[in-house]
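Q: Structure tokens for this one, please.
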Amino acid sequence: QVQLVESGGGLVQAGGSLRLSCAASGSIFSINTMGWYRQAPGKLRELVAIITSGGSTNYADFVKGRFTISRDNAKDTVDLQMNSLEPEDTAVYYCYLRVAYGPTHWGQGTQVTVSS
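A: Here is the predicted structure, written as tokens:
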């Protein structure tokens, strides 16, 4: 089974930065997509950014130019560098992994709070 462990969340002022990290372990297939979703109170979970094992990325429009997703295939980790954070970015951020032809896996989530 796959386990995803997130870290790096916290409280920052508007305009500040955070770097989220997610470490994957378990039955990880070489072909997979990893990334980050987020969910604010009372809102649906939404895609933030994803990256394939080949390095292809997809960003939500609201984070383009501010967030950067990256991964280390050797370490089975994925990071999300978040700059120019806004109060609207406040949410629980969940690490995401989907192996080829397999189910979706989620981390426990890490809280990101951006104060105005």
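A few notes: The CA atoms of residues 30 and 74 lie 10 Å apart. The chain has a mean pLDDT of 95.
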